[in-house]
Amino acid sequence: MGRVQNKVAIVTGGAQGIGAHYARALAAEGAKVVISDILDGASLAEELGNAARFINADISDRDDINRMVDFTVQAFGTVDILVNNAAIFASITPKPFLEIETDEFDRMMQVNVRGQFQVIQAVAPIMIGKRAGKIVNIASGVVHVGPPMMPHYTASKGAVWVMTKSLARELAEHEIQINSLCPGFVLSEQVLANKDKWSTFVEKAPQARLIKRDQTPEDLLGALMFLCSSDSNFMTGQSIVIDGGVTLR
What is the Cα–Cα distance from 24 to 30, expressed in whole angstroms? Predict the structure, then answer.
């Protein structure tokens, strides 16, 4: 029996890249998975079989979020696990902070912070009603490093990190565990597709690590399954940094 056998999971931003790896890992461990994304995840849902569904939804739109949660309940009856993964990252262009326009900054916060918050608001009543649930917010190792050229992204992930701690205090009485997973610089599908503008980061990231190699999506899956399963039942409000030893704390 899998570690999340018959649990119902939503993976936002799950159509490709790291999110798709999360969806596959949950399905492999027995979960019923709803893949939510603004990109097309129908082929991934088909790959995962009868225990997977895809819905096109934008987490910056509250109506889309509500539709996503309703779709999940109609398909599988409940929500047990939320992997709050959807975010803006690989599509941005690293640049000096003086060149970051207000619209770009605001869009980053709208998706990466408000979007994650509103998804939690939408699934929490279901979890509260049954006094059980696992929420994994995808933050980032950048909150402990503060890299240059993307302060708006770093600020957004710092907000996710501390928001997780605050929400843990409210959700604990309902037997809901909420934690954050903080990846380092991962060679995701999206980063590789935009390798020219990320070339400096791709080159320098392994040099900054104690483990001197590229980080891949597979490096995150053990921690993800720990946070989604009963193995983490006595852990909440915490962050797990998976960055090859860039951060020592």
Answer: 10
